[in-house]
Amino acid sequence: MFRPILSWFGLILLAISFVCFLLVTPPLQPVAKSRPIARGNEAAPVIVLDPGHGGQDSGAMCGAVLEKDLTLDVARRAEMLLRAAGYTTRLTRDSDRYLSLAQRAEVANHEKNSLFVSIHFNDGERAAASGVETYFAARQNATSPGIFGWFSFLQPRESKPLFAQSESLARFLQAALVERTQALNRGIKSERFYVIAQVRHPSALVEGGFITNPADVAKLTTTGYRQQIASAICDGICRYREASLPNEPTLAWAAPAE
Ligand SMILES: [Zn+2]
Fold first, then answer.
1. Which residues contact 254 (CB under 8 A, 6 or more apart)?
2. Would you say the pTM of this structure is higher than 0.85?
3. From ligand 1's centre to the CA of 20, what distance in Å?
4. From the CA of 60, how far away is ligand 1's center (Å)?
C-alpha cells in the first residue's frame, strides 16, 4: 500500500529537483576567443573622471587661463576616448559648478566597481617649475561607512591592496603622460590628497603641467596639447586595466619602471 505512494512521492521529488536545476543553472556560453578590455566585460570598472575645481573655485590661474576650464576640457576629451574604447564613464561635473571634495569622491564610491582619475594643473611657487606628475594616496579608506563597513569581510578581496592598485594606476598614467606630451617627468608621488584618499577604488590625481610656467601654459592653451593629455589618460587607464586582468596569458604592457 505504502510502496506505490512512496514511489510516486520519489518521482515527484525528482521532477521538482530537475526543474530547480534547470532554473538555477546558467546557460552554457561559448568560450570567448579574446577578452576585450572594456566592451562586454562585466568586470570593467566605471571610469570616473574628476575635472578639478569649478564654480567659484578657479584653481590655478594665469591671466584669463583658469585651471577649472582646462580640467573640464581635458576630462570631456578623455571621456570621449574612453567611451570609444568601450568604457562606461562618469564626470563628477560637466559644467562650471562647484563640488566639494567629498561629493567628488562619492561619485566613484557610489559605483560598485570604479576607477577614479582626478585632473589638475599645477601652481608652482617658482615660474621655472615645469612638467607632469601623478599622485596616489598611500592610505585610502577602503571600507564603506556605516553598517556596510562592519561586513567588509564579505566584500571580495583583491589580490593587491588598494594602495598598490592606485600606485600601479598612477604609474601607468604617468608613463602615458610623458610618452604623449614629452613633458618633463616629475614622477609619481604619494600624497594623502583628500579627494583620492576618500575613494574606495583605485584612484589617482594627474597634474598635467604648470599654469605658472610660461612655456607650459603656452602649450596648455592649445587644443592639440590638451588632446594629448586626454589621450594619455585613456592610454594609462587601458594599460592599467590590461595589466591587472587576472590570468592574462600575454600581457602587452608591463608596469613601467619609475
Ligand atoms: Zn588643482
1. 243
2. no
3. 56
4. 6
Q: How far is the CA of 59 from the centre of ligand 1 (A)?
A: 5
Which segments of the chain does DSSP mark as H helices, in order? Answer: 2-24, 67-84, 101-109, 147-150, 162-181, 194-197, 214-220, 223-244
Distance 24 CA to ligand 1 centre (A): 50
Helix boundaries (H) for 58-161: 67-84, 101-109, 147-150
Instruction: Please give the distance, rounded to the nearest whole angstrom, from the Cα atom of residue 51 to the centre of ligand 1.
Output: 9
Domain parsing of the chain, residue ranges: 46-244
How far is residue 135 from each of residues 129, 167, 173, 236, measured CA to CA in Å?
A: 17, 8, 10, 14
At 95 the pLDDT is 98
Q: What is the mean pLDDT of each run of 10 residues along the chain (258 residues)?
A: 61 58 43 44 86 97 95 98 97 98 97 97 90 94 56 53 95 98 96 94 97 94 97 98 72 58
What local confidence, expressed as pLDDT, does residue 147 receive?
Answer: 47
At 257 the pLDDT is 61
CA of 105 to the centre of ligand 1 (A): 15
The fold for domain 46-244 equals Aminopeptidase (3.40.630)
68 CA to middle of ligand 1, Å?
8
In sign, the C-alpha dihedral spanning 78, 83, 86, 90 is positive
Strand ordering across the sheet containing 46-51:
89-91, 46-51, 114-122, 203-210, 132-136, 185-190
Give residue 53 CA to ligand 1 midpoint distance, Å. 6
Distance 54 CA to ligand 1 centre (A): 10
98, 59 in Cβ contact below 8 A?
no
Q: Rounded to the nearest whole angstrom, what is the distance from the C-alpha of residue 52 to the centroid of ligand 1? A: 5
